Amino acid sequence: MARIMNNVGVDRERDGETVTLKVANHSDRNESLEITEIVSAEPDGLPDAVDPIEMDGEWFLNWNPEVSSGETVELEYSLPTDADADATVDGVDDEKLTVNA
Q1: Taking all residues of the chain, what is their mean pLDDT, rounded to a whole number?
Q2: What is an example of a GO molecular function annotated in this UniProt entry (predicted)?
Q3: Residue 51 and residue 63: Cα distance in Å, rounded?
Q4: Domains of the chain
Q5: Would you give the DSSP letter of residue 16?
Q6: Which among 58, 57, 100, 50 has a CA at the least distance from the CA of 77?
């Protein structure tokens, strides 16, 4: 859908404990995003630049990817299979954003 609408798309894929957020920029300009993933269990396998913050039994993960026009960035970490995750995305106008995460 994001490709058709020339939007920035954020999609979550889970393969066992591996979680991948794919950020695809289908717009005609570079985008700077702020992605916050809220998870219900302690995450693992995070890149050095991401420090999870625990608050009331939830963990908050923040990424600030720069995604060039026509490019895709993948953000990956591990999470128990029974844990929930929810993403919020800032930095792109809502009408130019498609989130399936």
Answers
A1: 92
A2: isomerase activity
A3: 10
A4: 8-94 (2.60.40)
A5: T
A6: 50
